[in-house]
Amino acid sequence: MKLKQRLRIRVVGIVQGVGFRPFVARLAEDLGLSGFVRNTTSAVVIEVESSPDLLASFLKRLETELPASATIEHLNVETIDPVDDQQFQILTSGTGESHSAGLPPDLAICRDCCREMDSPEDRRYRYPFLNCTACGPRYSIVEGLPYDRPLTTMRDFALCPDCRAEYEDHKNRRYHAQPIACPVCGPKLWFERADFIGDSDAIELALTALSEGQIGAIRGIGGFHLACDARNTKAVAVLRARKARGDQPFALMVRDIETAREFVQIDEQAAALLGSTAAPIVLLQKSGDSKVGNDLAPSNGYIGVMLPYSPLHRLLMKSLDALVMTSGNLHGEPIVTGNEEAVEKLSLQADFFLHHNRGIAAACDDSVVRLYRGRALAIRRGRGYAPISLSLPVDCISTLAVGADLKSAFCLGRGGKAYPSPHIGDMENLATLESFERSLHHLSRLYQFQPEQVVYDAHPGYLSTQWALRFADEHHLPALAIQHHRAHAASVMAEYGLTPDQKVVAVVFDGTGFGDDGAIWGGEFFSGDLTRLQRTMHLPYVELPGGDASARRPALAAIAHLHAAGLDWTATKPACALTALEAKLLPRQLGIGLNCHRSSSMGRLFDAAASILDIRHSVAFEAQAAIEMEALAARSNDKASYAVSRWNLAELWAEMLTDTHATTEAKAQRFHQTISLWTSRTAQELALAEGTDTIVLSGGVFQNLLLLECVSSTLEQAGFRVLVPRYLPPNDGGLALGQLYLGALADPR
Ligand code: ZN
Ligand code: ZN
Ligand code: FE
After folding, report:
1. CA-based nearest residue to 78, from 50, 57, 47
2. Does domain 497-725 have CATH number 3.40.50.720?
3. Cis, bond preceding 387 (omega within 30 deg of 0)
């Protein structure tokens, strides 16, 4: 007698929009199982019927042969009564369940699609919008869930008979590929210049313009880029001037890994990250030839590099092998997504436009990452990584956490899930605030989210704080302020699923955050569990002149530090870098503490060191001085640290000022070693006192890989478990998740 069994399998994870259902259907057919697979809004449901051993091998192959872009977070199997159906079917999406399905991020073009677009005999030869179930736009085109074409910006493109046949054939690799398109029925490109608009040979026109040194505004996946030939120094200089960009580094798109090697050092891990489905911008050390890329990233040891991740970008790399690709935006504003908006806002920066008519439902910047221990450490989380859902260790009511002002990103939470938004921008103008609201509206619609509580940063002056209070007031919601650095710590604890009663020591180093005592914090140690995170140590307070002024002027931070240390600073490098006005006012200002703020900021400590070492006295963007100092330090193998008492800054500065034999590189390395040593020793002692072996590292200063690696490895060698951000950035872009977690614990119910 042949025994038949039927299983119902619920799969949660990134299983929609990644070719998961066709994969299931092929597998079932292969094994001769009957049943069905169906998308629901919260999971994929599979029912399969056959003999127990075939069902067992189905379950095994389901996990082992999973498509690369799919991820199974959770799989629930139950045995149900057989229904004796005859075939396997893919059923249309069901609706009505709560919206929490894993919506996939935008996926870089796959190999099969590359091959097709390169084959002259293929009907999609050189088609800029081809895609399949394994690749193409997702998040950026989705307007609602479940993920089906009518709920994407592809809805207006009616399928031609050929595309329809592929879409409906479950043996085809475009079976149910929602953004499926071809030159007959899909989106189109056109070229626009002041005197001319044309849709034939748009790519050729763009390439000609680029090779003549012109600057193009090019519509991509999550918004517009401004692009120019990276090998044309004149074009790069023009772009820099038009973007009013100062020394800020430009990201590069290069044709392939070989080309990338001309600009940056690439090992196997870096190559794998560049070629991953997320295809992020990876910040890598400049290649040995130090002249290369000096105009792209002046006095910076690193260049951000990415590979062409869409078919359109591949076409652009046919005749040019390296393009500067920088976000298309007005200074300080979010990335531009619409064609008309682009012409309106970018006409002074771009010589031409390359438009297309596939709508962008949600703005999404390129992600920026560093390579840390073989994986991506997010600096900016956008295209390819957003959206994600994370499991929270506790249940929460529907909570909106608004994040902070710099590197703004919010986070939605409900039940045991958190949904962090992609990077939005620096909250310093109306345009960013509007983009924040659009992004909030978009994610709220996708997840059918209605906040019942709002949490925000305790800084009373943040725009995000004011927005949160007004929003809570308008919607009659409870609102809760969360201290900045505790949120940084809680963010990492949430990522690792640490429960609220788990004891930790958290080391949070950043530039600025509003402290409990009204001082500017940023060099903080906390001990305890999440319900009571006590500040057990901090960097000694120093009076810093004018909050923002010393963030832009490392020289001011340096002199404030030297002054606080009681050292004579008049003949130092930072003193030479002062403007006449600063030189006149500063002694008096520091003397009486006029417009000075008490600060324990680790970010400013690094700035001060960079200025004292004559590396940089003024910055054009956040953390510029620290980034340059890290790159210099990384070139030295001098792993000694300064032999001074722990956290005695006066002794440290005195040593650095008198250490005249060593090179700047060696001194920068010694400074890193000293701070790392102090940090790990203090963290260890606090952990022993608290009775925990878990140490959390968070805050923007830990984007410094030299510091991160030194502190982590020292602590790990001493037997501690070190937790560093995995999915979200250590900087304020990851803050909202921590606000959310702390907000969930303070549940007003
Ligand atoms: Zn593909
Ligand atoms: Zn078609
Ligand atoms: Fe911060």
Report:
1. 47
2. no
3. yes
Q: Which two tokens stand for residue 114?
A: 């590359």
- From ligand 2's centre to the CA of 676, what distance in Å? 58
Q: Which fold does the domain 388-491+733-745 belong to in CATH?
A: Nucleotidyltransferase; domain 5 (3.30.420)
Higher-confidence residue of 551 and 6: namely: 6
**What's the CA gap between 57 and 62, in Å, rounded?**
8
pLDDT at 627 over 70: yes
Q: How far is CA 101 from CA 10, 228, 361, in A?
A: 12, 39, 18
Strands 694-698 and 504-514: parallel
Ligand nearest to the CA of 18: 1
Q: Is 607 a residue whose pLDDT tops 80?
A: yes
Residue of 421, 404, 635 whose CA lies nearest to 511 = 404
Token pair belonging to 58: 């189905």
Distance 412 CA to ligand 2 centre (A): 37
The pair phi, psi for residue 204, each rounded to 5°, is -60, -40
Residue 678: CA count within 13 A, CB half-sphere: 24
Distance CA 612, CA 216 (A): 41
Say yes or no: do domains 388-491+733-745 and 497-725 share a fold. Answer: yes
Neighbouring residues of the ion ligand 1, judged by CB less than 5 Å: 110, 113, 132, 134-135
Ligand nearest to the CA of 183: 2
Q: How far apart are CA 278 and CA 565, in angstroms?
A: 47
710 C-alpha to ligand 3 centroid (Å): 21
> What does the block give as tokens for 723?
């937790």
On average, the pLDDT of the chain sits at 92
Tell which CATH architecture fits domain 5-90. 2-Layer Sandwich (3.30)
Q: What is the pLDDT of residues 641-689, one digit of tens each?
A: 998 999 999 999 999 999 888 999 999 999 999 999 999 999 999 999 9
Distances (CA, A) of 33 to 15, 36, 63: 20, 9, 17
Closest by Cα among 508, 565, 559 to 696: 508
617 vs 608: CA distance, rounded Å? 9
Please give the backbone phi and psi of residue 24, each rounded to the nearest 5 degrees, phi first. -65, -45
Average pLDDT of span 221-243: 96
Q: Counting ligands in written order, which one lies closest to the CA of residue 485?
A: 3
Quick one: DSSP state of residue 564? Answer: H
Domain chopping of the chain, boundaries: 5-90, 197-368, 388-491+733-745, 497-725
Please tell me the distance between residue 514's alpha carbon and the centre of ligand 3 in angstroms: 9
Phi, psi for 9 (deg, rounded to 5): -120, 125
**d(CA 177, ligand 1 centre) in Å:** 9
| CA 352–ligand 1 middle distance (angstroms) | 29
Token reading at 556: 């001011």
The domain defined by 197-368 folds into DHBP synthase (3.90.870)
Q: Which ligand is nearest to the CA of 174?
A: 1
Ligand nearest to the CA of 187: 2
Distances (CA, A) of 121 to 118, 317, 346: 9, 21, 38
Q: How many CB atoms lie within 10 A of CB 660?
A: 6
Q: Between β-strands 34-39 and 88-91, what pairing exists: parallel, antiparallel or unpaired?
A: parallel
Which letter, b or e, does each residue of 153-189 get, where b requires 16 or more Cβ atoms within 10 Å of its Cβ? bbeebebbeebeebbeebebbbbbbbbbbbbeebbbb
Residue 99 banded pLDDT, cuts 50, 70, 90: very low
Pair 467, 429: CB distance under 8 Å: no
Give the other-Cβ count within 10 Å of 738's Cβ: 31
CA angle 507, 510, 511 (to 5 degrees): 155
